[in-house]
Amino acid sequence: MRTLIFVICGVLSLAATLAQADEATEQAVIKAIMDATAYNRENLRGKPDTVAAEGSLEFWSSGGLLHEVPADAPEQEFESFSLNPKHITVITLVPGQIAVAQYYSEGSMHLKDGPMISNYRTRATQVFVKEGGQWKVRAAHWSPIAGGAGTTQTSVDD
């Protein structure tokens, strides 16, 4: 009986530790999304060093084919940027290492040398991996919400 109680206590302790790790991962990924958005808004350019070392595979809200975004891709530059992520949900796959975030992104933005998008509304799914102590994007899918607009961007070089 004593052994059974010890095993049950160990299992409960492990479950509590895993739950805390999931919560920490969730909060860190949400912070990475919010920090990148704030950086874009304040600097009118994409936050540097947010793509995984192996790059990111992405479907953009402009539609079209799968894009391979290298880690050293130039940051997007904006004339204006007022997007807001909403309702962020994070699924932890490996605590402290891999997670998937799903959320909505709404607002307006104007890419340099591109058209103004005043009704940008998309669903976003991003896969994050932790590298060098930072959460970085390894894959993403952006799809416009009915009635909203995506970007017209068709390549990293735009």
Give the strand tally. Answer: 7
What about the largest sheet? 7 strands, mixed
Beta-strand percentage range: 35-45%
The termini sit apart by 68 Å
Helix content: 25-40%
Secondary-structure content class: alpha+beta
The overall pLDDT average reads 87
- Regions with little confidence, pLDDT below 50 for 5+ residues: none
Helix and strand run? HEEEEEEE
- Net shape: elongated
Tally of individual helices: 1
Rg (CA only): 19 Å
Structure description:
There is one protein chain. By secondary structure, this protein is of the alpha+beta class. The protein is built from 1 helix and 7 strands; from the N terminus they run αβββββββ. The chain has one helix at residues 2-43; strands at 56-59, 67-69, 78-81, 84-94, 98-111, 116-131, 134-144. Strands 1, 2, 3, 4, 5, 6 and 7 form a 7-stranded mixed β-sheet that branches. The model has no long low-confidence stretch (mean pLDDT 87).
